Amino acid sequence: MKNIRYFMAWLxxxxxxxxxFASQNTRAPNTDIPPSAELTYTVKAEYNGLSLGGNSFIQWxxxxxxxxxxxxxxxxxFGKILDADSNGRITAKGLVPEKYVEKRLRKEQTTxxxxxxxxxxxxxxxxxxxxxxITQDRASIVWQLAFIARADPERLVPGSTLTFQVxxxxxxxxxxxxxxxxxxxxxxxxxxxxxxxxxxxxxGQKMNVWLAPDHNWYPVQILFDEPGGLQLLQTIxxxxxx
Length: 242
Hints:
The protein is mainly beta and about 240 residues long. Helix content is about 15%, strand content about 55%. It is built from three helices and 15 strands. The protein has helices at about 1-15, 20, 140-150, and strands at about 35-45, 50-60, 65-75, 80-90, 95-105, 110-115, 120, 130, 135, 160-165, 170-185, 190-200, 205-210, 220-225, 230-240. Strand 1 and strand 2 form a beta hairpin. The longest helix is centred in the first third of the chain and has 15 residues, at about 1-15.
């Protein structure tokens, strides 16, 4: 009788608490990835001495296994000046790009392929480089910063640095971002608290990214600056969940 009572009690527990048993085989969602959204920006551009305005958007889609990222920017007089697409996987370490396509103003379109089986990155004209570790592309790097910020915001103190391997148009090189400060920036959405990351490249190329902790750590402002070329400032004006 005692064994029967124990068996009946176990059946009741199983019926009332199925989640206890199911959770052992269920993968928890990756909470460090920003939720899918379309971000719309105002654009201020400087090109060959001209000050121009425009608009841009970033469409970010992600689930537990993969992501897709599209960034397009248009300015007056020139129309589309940036069209970039990044697609890849999501792991415990963040974004793992597999394909990146980029078209910039007055530059040829380039396609970069990441092969982690053969450990190679293939650039235009079939040029290859060794792929020794997870490497970002020039679009995914912004969202890898967001991944790290969401996972460990306490490490983002002014003066700290974050270094990544990033594939450019023809080679892989380290990109080091410095955490500059935390403060409010003015946007069409109003004042927004943001943490600023700054990178100064070897040839004077600059990139600044502002991530907003109160808005899922989305990039609320992005600045590209190429000496003698294009300076592009994108400032958030609308966030639409997808």
